[in-house]
Specification:
3 strands, flat
Length: 324
C-alpha cells in the first residue's frame, strides 16, 4: 500500500512538472478535456468493479480482525466509504484540477477562517450588559461517553469470542471468579457500563444539579458493539439515556435505567429543587454507519432517527438566560 501511494505521488509530480510548460489557452483546454475524459473512464471502471474493491477490503480486514468486525466495516462502513470517495472525486474534479492541476478548479477549498467569520456573523456573541460588577462564573457539568450496555450482567464472562461486547447475560455466569464481570463494571475487559452504574450516575447528578448552570452530554450513549444490532438499537439507547438524564435533571422524576421505574437507590432527602438545562450532543456512536453523518442528506438514518432526539432540548428562555 505504501509503495503504491509512493508510485502514485511520483507520477502526479511528473505530470505536474510536464504541464508547467507555457501552453496556450487552447492547448490547455484540450489537455484538460483529455484528462477529464480519462478521469471519467477511471471512475466509471471503479464503479463497475466496486464489489471487487469491497471483497479486497474484506480479505485484508480478515487478516487481523474478527469476522463480525470486518463484516460491519465492509458491508456498512466500507460500501458507503467507497461510494462517497468516488462521488467526491467526481464532483470535485479531483484528479484533473487538484492532483495533476491541468484544469481550473470547480470548487473552493474549505477555509476555516472564512467559516469562522460566517459563524460569528450568523451567530453573534451576545453583548453583555454594561456593569462594573464581575459576572458570575458559569458552572458546567459534563457527562461524556456513557456507553450503556443494557445486556450487561454481573458475574458473566469477561472473555468472549467477540472483539467487544462481553459481560453479557446471554453468555451465562462464568465459573471462574477472576474472569467474572463486576457489579459496577469491568474496566479491564471488553465490556461497557452496566445499567446499575448508570443508575448511580443519574442519582448522583440529580442530587448535584443545584451546583450546575447547565449540563452538557457529549455523546456516545450506546455500547461499543452497537453495530452488532439493528440500527434502531442506537436510537433506543440514545433516547433512553437522554430521556433519563434530562428527566432527572429538569424534574423530580427519577428513572431506573433497566426497568424504567422509580429508582430504589434514591433516598427521601435527595435534592430535587430547581431545574438545570441539559444540552445533548452527538458522538460517533450516534452515527450510522459508524463515524458517518451526511449533513446534507435529510433522509439519512441519522437525520431522520437520531438527530431529532437531540434537538429542541433548550427553551428560548433557557437560551436567553445562558447567553446572558
Amino acid at each position: 500500500n505504501r509503495m503504491l501511494k509512493t508510485l502514485i505521488a511520483i507520477s502526479v509530480l511528473q505530470v505536474r512538472e510536464a504541464f508547467t510548460y507555457p501552453f496556450s489557452p487552447t492547448q490547455r483546454s484540450s489537455i484538460c478535456s483529455l484528462c477529464r475524459s480519462v478521469e471519467e473512464r477511471v471512475i466509471s471502471s471503479m464503479r463497475r468493479h466496486r464489489r471487487s474493491i469491497e471483497v479486497a477490503m474484506l480479505t485484508l480486514c480478515l487478516r487481523s480482525d474478527p469476522p463480525k468486525i470486518c463484516d460491519y466495516v465492509v458491508r456498512y462502513k466500507g460500501t458507503r466509504a467507497v461510494s462517497n470517495k468516488l462521488s467526491h472525486i467526481e464532483s470535485t474534479d479531483y484528479l484533473c484540477s487538484i492532483a495533476v492541476r491541468v484544469c481550473p478548479p470547480r470548487f473552493a477549498k474549505f477555509d476555516p477562517l472564512k467559516y469562522e467569520e460566517w459563524l460569528y456573523r450568523t451567530f453573534p456573541i451576545p453583548e453583555r450588559p454594561a456593569s462594573k460588577e464581575k459576572s458570575p462564573n458559569l458552572r458546567i457539568g459534563v457527562v461524556s461517553d456513557i456507553h450503556l450496555q443494557p445486556n450487561y450482567m454481573a458475574g458473566a464472562y469477561t472473555k468472549c469470542e467477540d472483539h467487544i461486547g462481553c459481560c453479557k447475560k446471554e453468555d451465562g455466569v462464568s465459573p471462574i471468579e477472576s474472569e467474572a464481570a463486576g457489579t459496577w463494571g469491568s474496566p479491564y475487559a471488553p465490556c461497557d457500563a452496566p445499567p446499575k452504574l448508570f443508575d448511580l450516575l443519574v442519582t448522583q447528578l440529580a442530587g448535584m444539579r443545584a451546583g450546575f448552570d447547565v449540563v452538557l452530554l457529549l455523546g456516545d450513549y450506546s455500547a461499543h458493539d452497537f453495530f452488532s444490532f439493528p440500527p434502531e438499537y442506537s436510537v433506543d439507547a440514545t433516547k433512553y439515556v437522554i430521556d433519563a438524564l434530562i428527566g432527572n435533571l429538569t424534574t423530580c422524576q427519577h428513572l431506573n435505567s433497566s426497568t424504567a421505574q422509580p429508582s430504589s437507590a434514591l433516598s427521601n432527602d435527595t435534592v430535587c429543587e430547581g431545574s438545570v438545562p441539559v444540552v445533548p450532543m452527538m458522538g460517533n456512536a450516534e452515527t450510522f454507519p459508524h463515524d458517518y453523518f451526511n449533513y446534507d442528506d435529510p433522509e439519512s438514518f441519522v437525520h431522520s432517527k437520531l438527530y431529532p432526539l437531540l434537538s429542541g432540548s433548550l427553551s428560548e428562555a433557557e437560551l436567553k438566560d445562558l447567553s446572558s
